[in-house]
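Sample entry (414 residues):
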Amino acid sequence: MRRDYYAVLEITATAGPREVRQAYRRLARQYSPDVNFWDTQARALFEEIAEAYRVLSDQAARAMYDRFGAAVAGDDALPAGRRGEDVHLVVELGFAEVARGTSVRLDVHGDLVLVADRYRAGDAGIIARDHVSGVNLSSLMLAALAIRRPVPSALDVGTGCGIQALLTARHSETVVATDVNPRALTFAAFNARLNGVENVELVQGSFFEPVQDRRFDLVVANPPFVISPDHDIMFRDSGLPGDTVSREILTQAPEFLNEGGLAHLLASWILKEDEPWWNPVEGWLEGRGCDAWLLLYKTEDPLASASDWAKAFHGNTEADYQRAMDRWLDYYKEIGVATIATGAVTLRRRSVPNWLRADEYPEGMPTVETDAVLRIFEAQDFLSTLPSDEELLGRALTVVDAHRLDRTLRRSQP
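Predicted structure, serialized as tokens:
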């Protein structure tokens, strides 16, 4: 039986944000995989602690949890009369058919409730090929970066459990969501029904194939961008060599945008020794008819990347982990990987001379305000028209109403 999230963090239901944060930090240090790597019980507890903190640290998610709870199926279901009453609603909506009789996870994102396949520490090496991932770091990043403005049409490429499609449906007249995995489309359809969303069309097919000859005002994509030697897991492994899948998504997306349309895309790409992190993407996008804003999330050397994925999906035993490490490192050596960059790319279709801007992703997981992003694009449009830096010095600039001024004061020496 799943424990109550408040019990997991060893706090009361009336605990404030500071108490929640302090409890998480204390328990996370105690059960961190970094110091309990081969302790499967500690790893399971760490995952449970992280899940509890993710919900209880978010005001909207905590309110939803206090009302409905964390619903799971099978032996983990909470009994009636406790948090988890939404289990009954799920059953009434045909939950068993959607989940094919297996246990699932339930994520709360704002006021959305999303069902997906469950994955826990200790499952490494036995995850199904058609596993449908729930809300994770990459989906949160894409959701945070997407510009939320009304549009007639939108496309979600590689919808998975449907989180991007459901978020986009709130400000789009129609949304088309594609996925090559039939199980993902089943979960996405269930989640649309669960959340009362009726303007999403689900289509099976690989990436842009199902929407050839169509154009959209907004495109979002969280493809299987991991640079992987394996073909075992559909949401992680594209089956294409190196960073081919990221290159194809970035170079094809402009063809499916209306004039002025925006695309938000996640990607990973290979860097050569001492190569600027934006260089490969800049080359891919040259001549594609789009302005581009690149946001770097992280760079990793081959050892760090291989270790992350080996621990996540192949680390049940030390021998499994070592075999996976060897396979991934051999592959990286074979294709000439010096560094792997991961980030987000925002494109805007414009039939004028285009610009490219490259920034590093800010710390944490901020929610990007639509007006702020649009101001960045407006500012870059303005800068791209100036013939020289001296021209900028001759312009009068003002600050926006919602600005923040940071000032650092230093005490002078006597």
